[in-house]
Amino acid sequence: MSQNLVNAMADLEETALVKEVKALQAQGTPALEIIQKLQEGMNIVGKRYEEKEYYLSELIMSAEIFKEAATLLGGDLSAADSHSHGTFVMGTIYGDIHDIGKNIVTTVMSCNGFKVIDLGVDVATADYLKAIQEHKPQVVGISCLLTTAFDGMKECISAIEAAGLRKDLKILIGGGPCDQTTADYVGADAYCKTAQDAVEYSKKLLGIQ
């Protein structure tokens, strides 16, 4: 596959990206392969943000462009998701309304064959508990871009365990200020730096190659 799609995503060239996605669709390129290339581009965006080459405005723009590409692939993604690997519940913890990272993770997980339940942002512990009871997920993702919300994640995970819902359930966290130390503090099973990390961890958990 051409590197053009990766470059267009990394350089935030929306017109070129849309053109490339449509061209790849016309060639019969699988939707999952296209999404993987878009994710490669998003990884570059993330690195540029960390290196202060990009700022928050570029980060927001990249998420919108990614979302537009995913919309173009809509029908193809539904077909790719017809055989679900498992259920993944995802939300941004209460006290935090950031959704860029969450939206990327839910899109990429869906593209990789998971049934995704997106709880949105500022999600209360009670809503996580309700979703786990209703949807019986194998994996739960909690996103957080504010250090002030770390205690909220810790409280939520403790409540999940206290409710007897932690058995056979893995909890992943992610977001700009998070790292493995954060995961240890809040009681999560793993920290995922990228959306692809979430996919790979979940697939490994479920024994999917």
Q: Indicate the CATH class of the largest domain.
A: Alpha Beta
Average pLDDT reading? 88
Strand order of the largest sheet: 2-1-3-4-5
Tell me about the biggest sheet?
A: 5 strands, parallel
Number of domains: 2
The topology string of helices and strands comes to HHHHHEHEHEHEHEH
Structural class: alpha/beta
Spans where pLDDT lies below 50 across 5 or more residues = none
Strand element count: 5
Reported by name, the CATH topology of the largest domain is Rossmann fold
Radius of gyration: 17 Å
The proportion of residues in beta strands is 5-15%
Describe what you observe in this structure:
With 209 residues, the chain is α/β, with parallel strands linked by helices. It has two domains: 4-80, Methyltransferase, Methionine Synthase (B12-binding Domains), Chain A, domain 1 (Orthogonal Bundle), CATH 1.10.1240; 86-205, Cobalamin-binding domain (Rossmann fold). 56% of the residues lie in helices and 11% in strands. It has ten helices and five strands; from the N terminus they run H-H-H-H-H-E-H-E-H-E-H-E-H-E-H. A five-stranded parallel β-sheet has the order 2-1-3-4-5, sandwiched between helices. Helix 2 runs parallel beside helix 4 (56-72) and helix 7 (125-135) packs across helix 8 (150-162).
